[in-house]
Amino acid sequence: MKYDLFPAIASQESCQELAQQYNKLDCLDEPSLKCFREAYVIAKMSGSQPVLITGDNGCGKTGYAQLMWGVNSIRTKRNRSKEMLNVNCSAFSENLIASELFGHKRGAFSGAESNREGKIKAAGEKGCLFLDEIGDLPLSAQALLLRFFQDNEIQPLGTDEPIKLQDPPKVICATNKDLRKEINEGRFREDLFNRINKFHVHVPPLRIRPKDCLQNANNFLDKFKEMQADSSEVVAEQLTKMKIDSNFYNDNAKSGYSWPGNFRELENRIYRAAVTKITCGGTCIKFSDLFDESFIDSPDRVNTETQDFDLPKGPVLLPFDLEAKLDEIRANFIDKAIAQCNGEKTKAAKLLGYSNYQKMDRRRSKA
């Protein structure tokens, strides 16, 4: 892609400056730099059209949504004073998600004691709506959402006539699911997918972003220090001296750790390591400090010695569902193997002795 029309993202330095300006994103590695450029260009060119952001859990999809809303609102002169409204589609039941998005009339269902405006209308007047985990949206709500995208119309629950929105919001969708697979298995509408997938950004996982990993380790440590601003003088002095070890980058690269939880996992591990250092009087956080020995993952083997399966202590009270416990243990091993193989099920199946990953999936589904 050429950037003659977008000189602001021609260099890595300018990209990083813009990323910090909008949402303190980091794009030091080539995959994240490419992602930022795509997000910036799409935000400039997508106008009021929906955008789909994909990527693993915890890899920064919300941050990119905020970036794109910031850039898009300037380009299209949309209402920058309006906050981006967030709706997590996986957090509501089938009935409640429809009410959350489209609103309802008093008496529409049990518990609907008053009229309620839905998030789509609330985000209107040239605002922005962020639909997180759209892959978990029930099929009934998908049909209503498709009507909104096609006709700019919403119909609150319990009403007879649709409402035409004159200034519909910009909609940014995100998911960690493979929507094409969801379509093939009948869980997601293909026509809705085609509506939201006109502009697509994929956020790369942390495991292929070692420079971003180091930068965010420092960022999370700084954030932890700010959180402890009211600590005692002794702790405050120790935190002032605390830093990330200079070999963190190399040790991370050598470990081959897959970071299945991405940035959320990194943040949690940095916080725990900082607390441990405060306890023992240390000031330098090494990469190895982020892990208990049982959590150091090798890409080629599954650690079977340190797993805690919460087996019954003492005498077993009968009757006891042994098969269910064995299924639970089997599922634990399978999940661990898949994580250590970076999601490559064929490789994970081979490690666990299955002839193919389909057989492994069938055994996993019994848990």
Automatic annotation (TrEMBL):
**Gene Ontology BP terms:** regulation of DNA-templated transcription
GO molecular function terms noted in the UniProt entry: ATP binding
- Indicate whether Mitochondrion appears among the record's keywords: no
Q: Which domain of life is it from?
A: Bacteria
Task: Respond yes or no to whether keyword Nucleotide-binding is given for this record.
Answer: yes
Enumerate the InterPro entries for this protein.
AAA+_ATPase, AAA_lid_NorR, P-loop_NTPase, Sigma_54_int
What are the alphabetically sorted keywords of the record? ATP-binding, Nucleotide-binding
One short Pfam family name for this protein?
A: AAA_lid_14
Residue limits of the Sigma-54 factor interaction domain?
42-275
Which PROSITE patterns would you find in this protein's record? SIGMA54_INTERACT_4
Protein's name in the database: Sigma-54 interacting transcriptional regulator
Species source reads Hallerella succinigenes
